[in-house]
Structures are given as structure tokens and as C-alpha cells.
Amino acid sequence: MLEKQVVACTFRMPVPSDCKPARSTGTRRRFSRFGDNERHPLDIEQTSSLKSAMKDAGADNMSTVGQFHLADGGVDPDRVPKRILYTGAAMPAIGFGTFGSDQASAEQVAKAVCGAAMAGYRHFDCAAVYGNENRIGGAFADLFGAGLRRKDVWITSKLWNDKHGENEVIPACRKSIADLRAGYLDMYLVHWPFPNFHPPGCTVDSRSQDAKPYIHENFMRTWRQMERLVDMGLAKHIGTSNMTVAKLKLLLRDARIKPGVNEMELHPHFQQTELFEFVRDNRIEPIGYCPLGSPNRPERDRTSEDSSPMDDPVIVRIARQHGVHPAAVCLKWAGQRGQTPIPFSTRSCNYVANLQSVANEPLSDEEMREIATIDRNCRLIKGQVFLWKPGQSWEDLWDLSGEVTPP
């Protein structure tokens, strides 16, 4: 029997007077420093259950959206742009990421989900491998109990690499649904196209003795089970993640139900123009992870060649002109370009500002053109742990020749 995890939701109320931008060298910033999960120096924490937080906040700083109360300083979900999938479904054009990595515990992530929902987020990107879906499910249960309607929330989860077997896909999906208390999933993704297990927290030079390459016939066996999830009503849509043009061409050729989205690394220093245009041309919506350049990723995942888009002079200058943090520029660019970013933070001032950046004043056409010129082809999440034989480089995972890398 599933044991319910009770989450005491912590909402860090975004009180404007206490979250005003810090000033530094003429640049008006919404955060104390570059980063998508760093504490604002004036952040206020209010620790309580979700219901008591709503009660304590009072009518002066809560507004009602349907039967659910939106916190003061939040964004009306109706103001957030939507992506229309090929099925006609509308997906919010910014999501709340839930990968806490080494920076946030499952409990902290769950509390942030509560706060994000009260701030106006209606799209949550989850995954079994993040190790926090049961805690997030407790947060969702509280939110739904407080009046948030399930049909107004877009919930994504992902199939992990050790569950690609034909008899494992459906049970894995059912477990995520149960853990998340979601009833069904709006989107279920194959997290990586490689059925290779590696332990959490391993270094980039870790390799599995059982590692396997991408073999399309095997992937299609997994995909057929993904299609069954739609037939069974467990997932309304299915999609891919960390795929390439070469792999997607094969999938589109053979799939009965094509992917609705492809989740991929996207930020101003890694724009993936060819893959981005390919998925858009095929009515697959691009979801962008690491939209800020993942400034808080673990040291083990960094290389000397990595660059930070939020430190780019073009991004910094545009941010200064708009009076915002460079993170807001990265997110505005993502939204206007046509991808759906999924930033993560446990700090209310950060995640509220992230949401506002997509809903508020856009960048100019000239600024968008400027950002298009700063692509450095800098992939931060290289996937080295999925390599399957000695002597390979991480580039072998990404089919740079235009063909699937041979076994």
C-alpha cells in the first residue's frame, strides 16, 4: 500500500516591498547574484501548512482564480502563454522544474511546488529518477484539496532508463501517477533513449558494464508500451527527451502515436537550431531544460569548456536595459523563440520573477536577433555515463554525423 507523505507546504510569500531588486554597478537585478536557486538577501520565509498559509495571508494579499487562491505578487495563469500541441491540447509555455540535484531535498522541492502553484505556475516537470515524486504528490494532494483543479494543471513525468523493458513501462507510469496523486499524466516522456542504468550521484567517468547503444528496434518496443499508456488513459500524451534528429526521424517513421514534445537542453549558448527547427516543423513542441545554463549543477557535471549564458555580455547588457536579472532575459528569449523553459528554484522571489519574465514585457525583435548570434554550441549535459564501449567520446551519443552512431 502506498504510504502518503504529508507535506507541510512552505510558501515564501513574494511581498514586493521585501523582494525589491538589489542594485549593483548600475545593473538592476531581481536576484542577489547569478543563479536559479540562490537565496535572495531579503527573502522572507513563512512556514505553515498550505491551508493555514492561505488563511493567515488574508484577503488583502490573496486573489481568487476559480476556487483556488493566488498569492499576492503571483501571476494570473491566464496571462501565461500556451503551446498548442498537435492534439489541440494547451500546455503552459513555462514549467516549474523539480530536479533538486544536490541542491534541494525532496521536501524542499515539494514545498517549492506548493509556492509555485500559489504564485501561478500550472505546468510541473517531474521524473521518477529525481527521487521526489512521492513528496511532490503530497503537495499536489494539498493543492487539489485547497481548490486547485486537476484539469488546470499540466503534469509531466518520465520513464527512467532501467524501465525500458516491455513489461516495465506501464507499471513505472502507474507508480509515478500514484506517487504524484495525479490520477493521470498530461505527458509521459522516455527520459533518455539509452536503457543504461547508473547510480545517482556518480561521476561523469562512471560506466555500466551492461550499457547498450541506441538500437531502434528495441526503442520501438518501449515506444509501443508508451502508446498503450495513451490507449489506457494513463497518459494523455507521450514524448521524448534527449533525442536527436536522426533518432526522431526513425521514431516518426514507425510510431503509431507520435511524440507531443521533445525535452532538450536549450539556452542562449546552446540553441540547437537544427533540432529545434526539426521538432517544430514536425509539430513536436520543444521543452528546454537548463534554460539559465544550470548555474548550480554539481561540480562533477562541469567541464572547463562550459560557459554561462547569464554572464554573456549581450545578455547582461539587455538585462541592464530592461532593469531585470539576466535570468529574465534568458527566459524571455526562450518563450519568444517558441520553446517552453522549465527553470527550477526553491526561492519565491526567483520563481515568481521567472514566471513574470514570460508573462510580462517581451524583448524586441532586435534583441532577439542579437541573442541568436551568441550561440556557442556549448552543451552542458553531455551524458557521458551513457557511453557503451571504451574509447568513445560524449559526442557519440548525439549523432553529430546525422546518422545514429553505430553500435
Structure explained in plain terms:
The structure is a single chain. 31% of the residues lie in helices and 13% in strands. By secondary structure, it is α/β, with parallel strands linked by helices. It has a single domain (16-376), classed as TIM Barrel (Alpha-Beta Barrel). The strands form four sheets. The protein has an eight-stranded parallel β-sheet with strand order 7-8-9-10-11-12-13-14. Strands 1-2 form a two-stranded antiparallel ribbon. The model is unreliable at 1-8, 10-49 and 51-62 (pLDDT under 50).
The CA-CA distance between the termini, in Å, is: 42 Å
Q: What name does the CATH topology carry?
A: TIM Barrel
Give a quick account of the main beta sheet: strands, pairing sense, barrel closure. Answer: 8 strands, parallel
> Are there runs of 5+ residues with pLDDT below 50, and where?
1-8, 10-49, 51-62
Number of strands: 14
Kindly state the percentage of residues in helix. 25-40%
Fraction in beta strands? 5-15%
Give the class from helix and strand content and strand pairing.
alpha/beta
Total domain units: 1
CATH architecture: Alpha-Beta Barrel
